[in-house]
């Protein structure tokens, strides 16, 4: 049996997933793997959470938690959302497992041994104030290629290019805003430049690579490839053997997660070597991802696999372009998104899967609007597909005692319908294989529409029960074919339909090659129930209102929220420097136990602060900074000259509330 591995980009465990993730990656990958299984292939769907790197550690620092705590929390949420959406993972792992550490280390050692990795001393950005190196997301600046003012240290999200932090213009530390300095450090580089010729050829000649991926990558390759720094000076990550405080860059370890998740799958199955058939035995490897991950997969990962030498190369890299929401770019900070869990609290997974696949080609941007979603659900799923199925099953249920009737001799039209059915299924399969999921979804509706047309032409309701037998026999065959076409796209409804039609086993265990094996006459069907629920206009309005409300909430602070902030005037009773660079001051306020660690040492002398009145947010969540508890925050204004403490304009009573 042909071995195929389908992966979906490992989501960072630093936030909930939303509709954009589903559309670009997880639903197309799931539909594809389900399609392949029905082809009789031994196809497995591998994923997990990406738990290293600055995306996790920055979030953890902002929340005063450990990176592991952040990852634990989001790993569970992400997994649950995806499974509820019907993603049929064979394994969903985490990159923080010891197995992954071991496999990453071995991968690295192999590259070293084969001469693809070298050590160099290089200058890295370092924040003198925070006393730390600023890898990746710890630094922001202007992209040297496209001018985007908020490019990150490793990637510019506007032009999709991989960056080296030192080439950012106007870099600044994201923790404190300081302009970083250069400091020397030893790092490992992967010799990408040596693979440039190979990669160019591989991209050009790979017959399965979709055009959007090909074009992006060839364009990037025009600028040539530089060697790639694969280590970072930080604690959170897979440790580099022989170093303290040095870990692998997250984009080095994350894709190795595809392999380690497969190894874990094999171990869980009790067949430890089973993973090798997929990665080493000439199996096919399909990577699904969002368009912002193309560079890393097509260049870094493919290069890594080639350099390692023991694994297969990707058969295809399938990249979903972006999804807008009601015509606007989705944004977490502006609250402009629909989270999966929120969607599922009011709606079914299948209509969303259908919409996301059908709305436009994966290689083009798409839009989600509640109105259009309801329209497609109502017009296509309920009125065409659901209606045909319901008419057929209800007639069989009521007029034929719930049994698929025995046909009489088939006339030309009956034969034609069966031929058309096979042809549509054939086209559906071709679409799925070329990742044209939107077109495949249309075939499903095309087949249901054909069924409706056929029924309307035959008008069996105007005929006797006896005369209608053949028509309903043919319709039952169409319903079965529909259940099969639905299986990869709408797995829950497909299974429900399979059962309603009285078929044995699960629809997901069927094969495309069985398409012409008829539903036998006499098959007892179950009581017909509607497959899809119509979505009313008022529901659409309600969803839109919720969305607007959410984004309003993200923009404004409500009066209640402001009231929760306990801001008071306090007097500084003690201040001490706590770091060598004389930046951080530990400051005690009033006679209570309020204390803060503040980065104001550059502008204020500790001694001169004692006795001064300042404005303090007293109920900020306590956290530890440099080993000291910090449970309040002194407010200050910042401009080009530096910081200036806010003070009341006359002496006020200690503890006076600021409103
Ligand atoms: O962009 C992201 O969410 C990354 N965590 C994707 C990683 S894909 C793979 F390489 F693991
Ligand atoms: Zn800093």
Describe the structure in your own words:
The protein has 19 helices and 26 strands. The strands form 8 sheets. A 5-stranded parallel sheet has the order 3-2-1-13-14, with helices on both faces. α4 (98-113) crosses α7 (250-269), α6 crosses α9 and α15 (469-489) runs antiparallel to α16. The chain is an alpha+beta fold and 659 residues long. The structure holds S-(difluoromethyl)homocysteine and zinc ion. Zinc ion is lined by residues 127, 129-130, 173, 175-176, 178.
Going by CATH, the homologous superfamily of the largest domain would be: HUPs
Number of helices: 19
Helix percent band = 40-55%
Provide the spatial order of strands within the biggest beta sheet. Answer: 3-2-1-13-14
What would CATH call the architecture of the largest domain? 3-Layer(aba) Sandwich
> What small ligands are held by the chains?
S-(difluoromethyl)homocysteine, zinc ion
Blueprint (SSEs and pairs):
Elements lengths: L2 E6 L10 H20 L3 E8 L4 H10 L3 H18 L6 E4 L3 H16 L3 E11 L4 E2 L5 E4 L8 E2 L16 E5 L7 E10 L5 H10 L5 H12 L5 E2 L1 E2 L14 E2 L1 H20 L6 H4 L4 E7 L3 H15 L7 E5 L2 E3 L2 E2 L10 H5 L4 H10 L7 E3 L1 H30 L12 H22 L3 H22 L10 H21 L1 H10 L36 H19 L3 H5 L3 E11 L7 E5 L4 E5 L7 H4 L3 E5 L5 E3 L2 E3 L2 E2 L1 E4 L2 E4 L14
Parallel strand pairs: 1-2, 1-13, 2-3, 13-14, 15-17
Antiparallel strand pairs: 4-5, 4-9, 6-7, 6-8, 9-10, 11-12, 15-16, 18-19, 18-21, 19-20, 21-24, 22-23, 25-26
Helix pairs in contact: 2-3, 4-7, 5-6, 6-9, 7-9, 11-14, 12-14, 12-15, 13-14, 13-15, 14-15, 15-16
The structure holds S-(difluoromethyl)homocysteine and zinc ion (ZN).
The site of S-(difluoromethyl)homocysteine (2FM) has 9 residues, from helix 7.
């Amino acid at each position: 049996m042909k071995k195929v591995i389908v992966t979906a980009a490992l989501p960072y465990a630093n936030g909930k997933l939303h509709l954009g993730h589903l559309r670009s990656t997880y639903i197309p990958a799931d539909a594809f793997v389900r399609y392949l299984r029905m082809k009789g292939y031994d196809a497995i769907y591998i994923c997990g959470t990406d738990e290293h790197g600055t995306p996790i550690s920055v979030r953890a620092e902002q929340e005063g938690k450990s990176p592991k705590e952040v990852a634990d929390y989001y790993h569970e949420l992400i997994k649950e959302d995806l499974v509820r959406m019907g993603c049929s993972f064979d394994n969903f792992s985490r990159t923080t497992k010891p197995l992954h550490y071991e496999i990453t280390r071995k991968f690295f050692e192999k590259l070293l041994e084969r001469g693809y990795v070298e050590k160099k001393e290089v200058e890295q950005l370092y924040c003198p104030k925070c006393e730390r190196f600023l890898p990746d997301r710890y630094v922001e600046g202007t992209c040297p290629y496209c001018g985007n003012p908020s490019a990150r240290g490793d990637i510019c999200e506007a032009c999709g290019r991989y960056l080296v932090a030192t080439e950012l213009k106007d870099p600044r530390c994201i923790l404190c805003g300081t302009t970083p300095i250069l400091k020397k450090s030893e790092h490992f580089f992967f010799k990408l430049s040596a693979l440039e010729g190979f990669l160019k050829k591989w991209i050009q000649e790979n017959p399965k690579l979709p055009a959007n991926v090909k074009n992006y990558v060839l364009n990037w390759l025009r600028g040539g490839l530089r060697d790639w720094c694969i280590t970072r000076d930080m604690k959170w990550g897979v440790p580099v053997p022989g170093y303290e405080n040095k870990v692998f860059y997250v984009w080095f370890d994350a894709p190795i997660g595809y392999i380690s998740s497969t190894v874990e799958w094999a171990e869980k199955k009790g067949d430890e070597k089973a993973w090798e058939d997929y990665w080493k035995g000439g199996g096919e490897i399909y990577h699904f991802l969002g368009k912002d991950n193309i560079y890393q997969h097509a260049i870094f990962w493919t290069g890594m696999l080639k350099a390692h030498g023991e694994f297969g190369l990707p058969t295809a890299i399938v990249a979903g372009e972006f999804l807008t929401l009601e015509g606007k770019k989705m944004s977490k900070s502006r609250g402009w998104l629909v989270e999966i869990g929120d969607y599922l609290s009011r709606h079914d997974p299948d209509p969303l899967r259908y919409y996301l696949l059908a709305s436009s080609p994966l290689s083009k941007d798409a839009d989600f609007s509640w109105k259009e979603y309801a329209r497609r659900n109502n017009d296509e799923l309920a009125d065409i597909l659901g209606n045909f199925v319901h008419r057929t099953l209800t007639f069989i249920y009521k007029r034929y005692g719930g049994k698929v009737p025995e046909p009489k001799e088939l006339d030309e039209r009956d034969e034609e319908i069966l031929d058309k059915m096979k042809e549509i299924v054939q086209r559906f399969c071709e679409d799925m294989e070329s990742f044209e999921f939107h077109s495949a979804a249309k075939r499903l509706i095309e087949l249901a529409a054909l069924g409706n047309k056929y029924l309307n032409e035959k008008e069996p309701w105007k005929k006797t029960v006896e005369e209608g037998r053949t028509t309903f026999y043919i319709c039952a065959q169409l319903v079965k074919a529909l259940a099969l076409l639905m299986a990869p796209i709408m797995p829950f409804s497909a299974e429900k339909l399979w059962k309603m039609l009285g078929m044995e086993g699960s629809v997901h265990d069927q094969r495309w090659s069985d398409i012409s094996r008829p539903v036998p006459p006499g098959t007892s069907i179950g009581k017909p129930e509607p497959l899809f629920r119509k979505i009313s206009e008022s529901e659409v309005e309600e969803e839109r209102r919720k969305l607007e409300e959410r984004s309003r909430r993200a923009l404004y602070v409500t009066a209640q929220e402001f009231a929760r902030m306990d801001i008071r005037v306090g007097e500084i009773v003690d201040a001490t420097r706590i770091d060598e660079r004389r930046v951080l001051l530990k400051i005690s306020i009033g006679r209570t136990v309020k204390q803060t660690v503040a980065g104001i040492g550059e502008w204020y002398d500790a001694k001169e602060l004692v006795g001064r009145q300042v404005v303090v947010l007293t109920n900020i969540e306590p956290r530890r900074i440099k080993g000291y508890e910090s449970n309040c925050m002194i407010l200050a204004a910042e401009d080009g000259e530096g910081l200036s403490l806010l003070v009341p304009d006359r002496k006020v009573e200690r503890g006076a509330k600021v409103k």
